[in-house]
Amino acid sequence: xxxxxxxxxxxxxxxxxxxxxxxxxxxxxxxxxxxxxxxxxxxxxxxxxxxxxxxxxxxxxxxxxxxxxxxxxxxxxxxxxxxxxxxxxxxxxxxxxxxxxxxxxxxxxxxxxxxxxxxxxxxxxxxxxxxxxxxxxxxxxxxxxxxxxxxxxxxxxxxxxxxxxxxxxxxxxxxxxxxxxxxxxxxxxxxxxxxxxxxxxxxxxxxxxxxxxxxxxxxxxxxxxxxxxxxxxxxxxxxxxxxxxxxxxxxxxxxxxxxxxxxxxxxxxxxxxxxxxxxxxxxxxxxxxxxxxxxxxxxxxxxxxxxxxxxxxxxxxxxxxxxxxxxxxxxxxxxxxxxxxxxxxxxxxxxxxxxxxxxxxxxxxxxxxxxxxxxxxxxxxxxxxxxxxxxxxxxxxxxxxxxxxxxxxxxxxxxxxxxxxxxxxxxxxxxxxxxxxxxxxxxxxxxxxxxxx
Length: 453
Hints:
The radius of gyration is 48 Å and the shape is rod-shaped. The strands form seven sheets. A five-stranded mixed β-sheet has the order 2-11-8-4-5. Strands 15-20-12-22-23 form a five-stranded antiparallel β-sheet, with no helix packed on it. Strands 1-3-7-6 form a four-stranded antiparallel β-sheet, covered by helices on one side. The chain is built from six helices and 26 strands. Helix 2 packs parallel to helix 4. Strand 22 and strand 23 form a beta hairpin. It has helices spanning 2-25, 30-47, 53-77, 90-114, 118-137, 203-206; strands spanning 147-152, 155-157, 164-170, 179-182, 185-186, 188-192, 196-200, 214-221, 224-231, 235-242, 248-254, 257-285, 293-295, 298-301, 308-320, 324-331, 335-343, 347-349, 355-358, 363-388, 395-399, 407-419, 422-430, 435-436, 439-444, 447-451. By secondary structure, it is α+β, with helices and mostly antiparallel strands.
């Protein structure tokens, strides 16, 4: 049993040694870090030439602090820059580890600068600046002065529920009587570390941005500088003091999103109507035969087959000799039969049927107008609607005007998506096009509804 326990202890010890060795082997030498960081900074410096002024400013600060780290590594290792990782002190190992981190951040920032992603590059350089500043000023007996480097996000919405602001910087834990103030309001501190402060924006501050965008400045009160000096007898002395200037961070609060609706809702119904349809003239005249006698019937049909025949009007009727017009009768749903007969007046004859002349030719002439009957859609009533939305309101409903009989509903509504007085999006919805992106209009049981997302 004792032998087994001894073997287990030896195994655990060997595992710990191997783990430590593996971890140490992952570190570069001090010489490797200095060379790698110098090369990375050279590449970043070249890429900064075409960057925005804001990115250049951050890049200059970062390069200065990164050079301080290189100088500190040189001092910490003196003439032994190729010291193996397992021979390094804890302080040396920390310097080398942070140096490797700076190489990685510098390379990432350079890549983003090359792609002209300047905002992303700026964030990476700020993070590198924080690491570099913390590396140098955390060394023994150095004065540590808090500073604020980054606020995120730079804009929040007034309709957000408990929006949180993140502040990044250095030595943000220094100072016991600490607060974040926005005007007279004190913000709730959600998290505080050496490099980050998170606070919630008070609801009363959000109220100020209900109608328009407002710029907000938050003061970070109570941070302390620790001034350290080497006393040959007493060691390193410390003195706490207030910052010369209280750090502030600025961010924007955008008004909440609202919607404005304006349009018309129309209710139509179908009304029985008689409508003029086919119109024309008809005539049939004999062929100089005094004794002509033939049919002149006509079957007249509607042009529009959407309705049925109602009646026909005949005008300017003329019939000579024994000719006649009629009868007039329906002929199916869409036609009308108009009868007609052409009859000549006969001939004058003398003795022995001698030809003395024609009494007259027959003819039939008339104008006609057909009328159809059908259900015609007519507007029964309409109502104009207009609504200014409130924060969070995304569902709107309005009743159509009432009407009797078979009803049909039509609508045209213009929607504006607003942030304060700024139009973010606009669209028109109708029964022919009831959607616009994620907006949807519906009609059910005489009720118009509009869902906006």
